[in-house]
Predict the 3D structure of the following.
Amino acid sequence: MSELIQVRKKAQVTLPQAVRQALNIEEGDFLDVRVNDSEIVMRVKKLVDKEQAWFWARRWQEGEREAEEDIRAGRIHSFDNARKAVAFLHKRAKKGSGATNEA
């Protein structure tokens, strides 16, 4: 996509509607502006509250992707109550540790 825009007073520019829609840019969003050789490159940035930053950490996101893949592949378990879920986890932990007796 290519759009021609004009620089106005105070060096202001308006992003065309087609560009805003294509990139889901909303009022209040931030753009990271860089110069590469003779080009201006803008990237949309979304700010995250400090209290939510843990969720967007690379390690957490990798875990989220792994969990989503497990769900899609059917690698899930359902339990009637927490006691049964904990018993299942204990049983798996014993199997993983090489122990021969099962719960």
Summary: The domain at 9-45 is CATH 2.10.260 (Pemi-like Protein 1; Chain: D). The chain has two domains: 9-45, 50-97. The first helix runs from residue 17 to 22. The first strand starts at residue 30 and ends at 36.
